[in-house]
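Support request from a user on the community tier.

User writes: "When I paste my structure tokens into the form, the page sometimes reloads and wipes my input. The last time it worked, I copied everything first. Here is what I submitted, just in case something in the input itself triggers the reload:"
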């Protein structure tokens, strides 16, 4: 058993010190420590005594899955040792430990026990944590005790990463219904929360600043430090932190530290703040600071990001988010940068929906479903939302600004209109805007954009909130900062936070436990289901279908449910099906809606196209201490060119859905030798689907700004897919950006990439030699070689119009190398650079 201590929150290996190593031998023992007079209630920590020939330690372990796992592993190891006779264990078995012993006496039994048995508050003073604390509570904080260090990260044990939902006695761990009891207690505590909490107001400072790729050139004090009283919490968001290609493609940037240092120096001077969390996605960054005295009440800190750029992956647009618990309130802060351009308001709406649905925060209990953004008490949303002022000419807008007639101007604000139409930010609130638009200015001045484009001024930078007990004290821009073509915006909010009265909490907790003990454990749980058969009709590639299964607890006791895997299967459902939540707890008389979400993506489309897989599955719903229920999933999949091989598509002269299903599936399953049989009809040089998309882009989008960088609309991509699969209509619908994204989706879904997996290693080896690269391509199967040459010729044509479309060799090589040269295994950073080098040879006219 390894005993670790640390003087700071464990962030890296350097933060942890190996304090002692205890051999699990015949002299080893671990027993629970309890007094006969001690009341065995659910809610107490577990204390154990660990002894061997020269040690006697007491450890206090907090309740949770980490403790259970730890104790079970120790007991398992001990049991294995006890099976052996002492003479069977060689004396040299633990000699290797001698080199890890301290040269001096080391920590005494009493002093080490004192460290391990400290309360959270006393641990905060000593700066040491027990092994169980380190394993179970990984959240961390960095403290700027001395700002003169300017950027030095001084992590400190200021954040208490435990919740008020505390523990259990060790004797409860062995009970088979323990998980059920724990969930019931949690559920009942939530229902009775008003009995033990009170509301206390805290001040939150929220700031957003699109810095246009610039380094910090001026103090941020006018923006961050202007409130008269120091805020309790700072949440500071940046966009376009770094606009370089290196930041976009490799996500590394020195500007992260530069702006972090600038923020640290700009915080209110009358208080000391602890740094809690940083998260960055390319140029979107969010920083979270808390006053030192509040840090111990911050817990359950998690951070996630999601890209909403093209293919839903590129991080030039998207969001980062941090969720945390402050006292007993769950809070989520989101910093987003949505799609640009006046006409793209629907794309911005889609970005918002994607961010809300795709950001998932894991919970401390792995048995609980991840939390979405909207499942928090308080949601604070800031960023460059990019909604513009429409239907007015630039001079009209400037005249209204000069008159400070912001009320009239806001009638033409896209965000206000979209919120009013309930298309976006449903339930969110934005304060009254009493400041002039924050975009777009000439960098380094307060003058409106005087470039050739002459952008219409707009309130791109916004702060909104959702939740109760929230009052906005101010909402303003900061005109004195001139680093960027945007002005920073801030909001100071007073938010009512749920604070626990410890004494009332204890009484509520004990009452729940007493009532729970009265329940009849012999009662068998049962549920009723809203349905046992679910049919999904006409399933399409990347088009989600959702059915709802309602589970109602009609039994006499609470129940724990879980979807379990069937015999000889590794998962409880097929890969094209997602079940949410897949497990949970139901009190008596309660019900829960289970989402059965069917979604076919590139990893599952090929087998469904070929007929190797069908939309068929049987789900097994298991009740703890109860019976199993069986649920049937059936449906039909509409074959798509997405997920079909180049070889097969070259033999399809008609749209794929016009082919008889049996004929199509036979063709897909044919080997390359059978397909190339002379009796077989001569194939097309390239799939007609690729030709349609490339031809459309060549004729309509050669001068399109941000082509292959600006995402399309999902609804339009769906119509393009249907057009390619059915042949209707004759021409591709949707915007140029949607067609461009459809092309990339098509290439990404190919079961065998354009450059075959078998040639991938050769590509890496020849990446520095143009003639060798050409030889690799010449060795590809004919249809793959044709497609590669056709696509690279198209890309060279696009580069002729780089003045208009803002594309260059670097951008195109980075985007298309990821789709044309895919590895069958995980691609390393060095490999990505080599694939980039390989493709670059074919984008330069001399090497074509």
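"...and here is what came back when it finally went through:"
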């Amino acid at each position: 058993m390894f005993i670790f201590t640390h003087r700071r929150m464990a962030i890296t290996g350097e933060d942890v010190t190996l304090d002692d190593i205890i051999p699990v031998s015949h002299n080893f023992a671990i027993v629970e420590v309890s007094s006969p007079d001690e009341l065995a209630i659910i809610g107490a920590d577990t204390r154990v005594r660990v002894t061997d020939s020269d040690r006697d330690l007491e450890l206090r372990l907090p309740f949770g899955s980490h403790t259970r796992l730890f104790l079970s592993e120790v007991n398992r190891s001990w049991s294995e040792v006890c099976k052996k006779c002492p003479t069977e264990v060689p004396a040299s078995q633990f000699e290797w430990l001698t080199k890890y012993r301290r040269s001096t006496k080391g920590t005494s039994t009493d002093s080490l026990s004192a460290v391990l048995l400290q309360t959270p508050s006393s641990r905060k003073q000593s700066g040491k944590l027990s092994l169980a604390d380190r394993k179970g509570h990984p959240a961390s904080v960095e403290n700027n005790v001395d700002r003169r260090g300017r950027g030095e990260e001084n992590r400190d044990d200021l954040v208490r990463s435990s919740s008020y939902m505390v523990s259990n006695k060790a004797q409860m761990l062995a009970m088979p219904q323990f998980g059920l009891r724990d969930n019931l207690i949690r559920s009942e505590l939530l229902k009775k929360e008003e009995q033990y909490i009170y509301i206390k107001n805290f001040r939150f400072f929220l700031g957003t600043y699109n810095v246009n790729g610039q380094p910090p050139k001026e103090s941020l004090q006018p923006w961050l430090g202007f409130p008269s009283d120091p805020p309790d919490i700072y949440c500071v968001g940046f966009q376009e932190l770094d606009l370089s290609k290196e930041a976009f493609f490799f996500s590394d940037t020195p500007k992260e530290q530069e702006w972090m240092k600038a923020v640290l120096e700009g915080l209110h001077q009358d208080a000391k703040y602890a740094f809690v969390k940083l998260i960055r996605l390319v140029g979107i960054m969010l920083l979270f600071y808390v006053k030192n005295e509040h840090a111990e009440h911050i817990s359950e800190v998690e951070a996630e990001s999601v890209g909403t750029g093209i293919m839903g992956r590129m991080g030039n647009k998207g969001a980062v988010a941090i969720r945390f618990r402050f006292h007993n309130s769950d809070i989520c802060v989101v910093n987003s940068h949505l799609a640009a351009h006046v006409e793209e308001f629907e794309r911005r709406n889609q970005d918002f929906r994607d961010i809300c649905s795709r950001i998932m925060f894991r919970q401390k209990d792995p048995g609980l479903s991840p939390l979405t953004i909207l499942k928090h008490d308080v949601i604070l949303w800031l960023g460059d939302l990019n909604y513009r002022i429409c239907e007015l000419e630039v001079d009209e807008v400037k005249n209204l600004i000069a008159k400070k007639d912001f009320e009239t101007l806001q009638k033409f604000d896209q965000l206000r209109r979209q919120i009013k139409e309930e298309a976006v930010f449903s339930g969110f609130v934005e304060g009254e805007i009493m400041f002039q638009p924050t975009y777009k200015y000439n960098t380094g001045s307060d003058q409106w954009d005087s470039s050739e484009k002459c952008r219409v001024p707009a309130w791109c930078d916004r702060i909104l909130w959702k939740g109760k007990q929230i009052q906005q004290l101010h909402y303003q821009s900061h005109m004195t900062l001139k680093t960027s073509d945007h002005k920073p915006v801030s909001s100071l909010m007073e938010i009512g936070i749920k604070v626990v009265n410890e004494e009332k909490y204890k009484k509520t907790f004990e009452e729940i436990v007493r009532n729970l003990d009265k329940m009849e454990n012999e009662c068998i749980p049962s549920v009723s289901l809203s349905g046992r058969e679910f049919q999904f009709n006409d399933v399409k590639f990347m088009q989600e279908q959702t059915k709802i299964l309602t589970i109602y607890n009609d039994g006499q006791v609470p129940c724990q449910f879980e979807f379990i895997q069937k015999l000889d299967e590794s998962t409880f459902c097929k890969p094209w099906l997602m079940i949410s939540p897949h497990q949970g707890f139901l009190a008596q008389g309660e019900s829960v809606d289970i989402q059965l979400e069917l979604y076919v993506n590139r990893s599952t489309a090929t087998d469904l196209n070929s007929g190797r897989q069908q939309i068929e599955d049987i789900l097994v719903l298991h009740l703890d201490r109860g019976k199993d229920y069986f649920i049937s999933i059936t449906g039909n999949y509409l074959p798509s060119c997405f997920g079909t091989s180049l070889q097969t598509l070259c033999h399809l002269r008609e749209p794929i859905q016009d082919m008889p299903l049996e004929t199509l599936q036979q063709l897909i399953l044919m080997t390359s030798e059978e397909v190339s049989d002379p009796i077989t009809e001569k194939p097309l040089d390239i799939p007609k689907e690729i030709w349609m998309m490339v031809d459309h882009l060549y004729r309509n989008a050669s001068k399109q700004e941000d082509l292959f960088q600006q995402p399309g609309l999902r609804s339009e991509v769906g119509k393009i897919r249907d057009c390619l699969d059915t042949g209707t209509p004759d021409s591709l619908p949707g915007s140029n950006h949607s067609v461009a994204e459809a092309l990339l989706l098509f290439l990404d879904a190919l079961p065998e990439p354009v450059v075959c997996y078998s040639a991938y290693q050769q590509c890496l080896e020849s990446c520095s030699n143009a003639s060798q690269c050409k030889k690799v391509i010449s060795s590809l199967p004919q249809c793959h070689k044709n497609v590669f040459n056709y696509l690279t010729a198209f890309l060279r044509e696009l580069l002729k119009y780089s003045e208009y479309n803002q594309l260059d060799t670097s951008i195109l090589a980075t985007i298309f190398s990821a789709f044309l040269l895919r590895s069958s295994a995980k691609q390393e950073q060095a490999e990505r650079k080599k694939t980039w080098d390989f493709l670059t040879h074919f984008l330069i006219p001399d090497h074509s």
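Agent notes: The reload is a front-end session timeout and is unrelated to the input. The chain has a mean pLDDT of 84. The longest strand covers residues 197-210. Escalated to web team.
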